[in-house]
Amino acid sequence: MALRESKYYPGGAVFVKYSPDGGSFAYYPSGRMACAYERMGSGFYFYFYTDKARNKATLMAFDPLGYGYVSFEDGTPRLTSQKAGGTYLPDKSKPSELKRFTASKPPAEPIEFMVTPQLTFKFKNSREITATFNCQGVAEDYVLGDPPDRTDSYLLKSVGVVKMGPERGKQILDVDKCRQAAAEAKAARQGGGMKELAGRKKSHLCPEDMVKHPQLSSVVRATDDLQSSVRAGDWHVDVFVEKAKLAETLGDDLPTLRMGDSLRGDPHSQSLSGMPATQPDTLEVLLRNSVFDKHALPLSNVLKSASGRYRPEHGEKLRTQRRRLQELKARDYDTFINTDAPKGTLVVVCCLAGWLPQCRRVEPVLEQLNGEMHEAAKSKPAPGGGTIKGVPAPFLLCKFDMSESRFLRDRYNINTMPMYLMYYNGALAYASNTLNGFGTGKDDLVAQARKTLLDAQQGLVLPAGFKFSHTDNNLVASFSSTLGATAPTLGSTR
Predict the structure, then answer these.
(1) In this structure, what DSSP letter does residue 181 have?
(2) Are strands 326-328 and 395-401 parallel, antiparallel or unpaired?
(3) DSSP H or E segment with residue 192
(4) Could you write out the DSSP letters of every residue in 25-63?
(5) For the CA atoms of the chain, what is the radius of gyration?
(6) CB contact set of 89 (below 8 Å; sequence gap of 6+)
(7) CA angle 447-449-453, nearest 5°?
(8) Are 131 and 60 spatial neighbours (Cβ–Cβ below 8 Å)?
(9) Dihedral sign of CA atoms 50, 55, 60, 63 in order
(10) Is the Cα dihedral 152, 154, 155, 158 positive or negative?
């Protein structure tokens, strides 16, 4: 396929640039890419983009089978084409006018519209799609959805189908056609005009070969330069040392070759007679004294966070910042909240249950936050708490095991866990299973605690008898009563 010459705008800018494989790239006068028509495999893929610098949306995309889409400039689908069929929306402000069609029953009339002022599009079916890019009087036509017919399919070599027996339904292939196809494939794999060199039994290239195949000149020139440098003595091509001389000098007892049990299965690797004498770098490494200092290798971050069975005893006490949460019991709950907790400090009680996966995932995060607060309080104490990454966090983190007692469940009607209860000077100031609007992470808890503390200091707390209302968790429990109440009504309509 001959390479076509590029097209240019009247001002000299590139309009379309062609590729050697038959593809092309079109550009707007601004220099931004408009169309990409690229070959992949046996067909072409087509993409069309907007000319807006801030909106780099793809307005059109189709594969070689004619499957793809066309959209409005805001991304709303305008036309879709799939294997089963497609859709077409003439006006995005009128979604009720959406039209559907199938592969067996395409649109009665071709669908034609302008995607942009520069691009017109026409769709008849998935195999007959055309697009025209016209800008400043220069135009380029594109034919989409027309993949070339395959010539290498085994069905083309079939002469019939087996009717009976265990091979029923299989194709009967023509052996001559299969051999011919194999020969054609082999010829196609050979390098163009250079395939005639494969049958010539000679070790050197003659001047006639260089004339016929000028692409070999660079290879021959590089080979000649290498041979000249070897003749000039630029390369040391002698053997490093003879094996016999090596064995005579060092003997056959070399501990570095016998140090591993993995070498027992290979007797040649345990003696100098099997050592590669032509590799001086390998010999130098083997003869080098060990610098192992008997200290354990440093642990990676993954192993540091793992359990203790992966940590060797090397003298250094590795520990994590995680710190267990203070656990509150039902019998001492009110005493701690109203009396024992420091005044002016926000107490955050995390309602958890060990049998719930969500609670098992969040408890290590809370322990990590508790440890960070503890370390920050030791290094830079502050009234009521420490500092986490420059954000004040004057609150006390505790937990309550909901599996041991129904105390908080009955008091607040808690049906969702993990649940966070925040108290200020004995009053409930916040109660929810989400933090900072909709978050559940560590940073969300810090942000929610800061906001709740400011609100509580201004007197914004929950009512004394606060309880959660009935949620969806109660629907199953009340199903029997609901069915009983509606049964007479349903019976009267029979």
Answers:
(1) H
(2) parallel
(3) none
(4) EEE-TTS-EEEEEEEETTEEEEEEE-S-SS---EEEEE-
(5) 40
(6) 76, 77, 78, 79, 95, 97, 98, 99
(7) 120
(8) yes
(9) positive
(10) positive
Neighbours of 103 (CB within 10 A): 13
Q: For residues 252 and 243, give the distance between their C-alpha atoms in angstroms, rounded to a whole number.
A: 11
Structure tokens at 405: 């007692």
Using DSSP's 3-state secondary structure scheme, residue 263 falls into helix
Q: Are 262 and 269 in contact (CB under 8 A)?
A: no
pLDDT tens-digit readout, 101-116: 998 888 989 999 999 8
Q: What is the tens place of the pLDDT at every residue in 204-247?
A: 666 676 676 676 677 777 777 777 777 776 665 444 455 555 55
pTM beyond 0.85: the answer is no
Strand order in the sheet with 346-352: 326-328, 395-401, 346-352, 419-424, 427-432
**pLDDT tens by residue, 353-378:** 989 988 999 999 999 898 888 887 77
Q: Are 420 and 351 in contact, with CB atoms under 8 Å apart?
A: yes
Give the confidence band of 122 by pLDDT, cuts at 50, 70, 90: very high
d(CA 342, CA 352): 23
Domains, the chain, in order of start with CATH, read 7-144 (no CATH), 326-463 (3.40.30.10)
Residues counted in the chain:
494
Mean pLDDT of 8-18: 90
Residue-wise pLDDT for 158-172, tens only, equals 778 888 877 888 888
Q: Return d(Cα 123, Cα 115) in angstroms, integer.
A: 12
The answer to whether residues 149 and 158 touch, using CB atoms and an 8 Å cutoff, is: no
Plot region of 31 (φ>0 → left; ψ -120 to 50 → alpha; else → beta)? left
Helices (H), 197-324: 207-212, 217-231, 243-250, 280-287, 301-304
Amino acid at residue number 39: R
User: CA of 451: how far to CAs of 98, 305, 445, in Å?
Assistant: 49, 32, 10
Residue 321 contacts residue 305 (beta carbons within 8 Å): no
d(CA 391, CA 405): 35
Calpha distance 48→62 (Å, rounded): 9
String of DSSP letters for 345-393: -EEEEEEE-TT-HHHHHHHHHHHHHHHHHHHHHHHS-BTTBEEETTEEE
pLDDT tens, position by position, 460-485: 889 888 988 765 444 445 555 666 66
Token pair for 325:
């949460």
CA distance 380 to 211: 83
Q: Which amino acid is at 400?
A: F
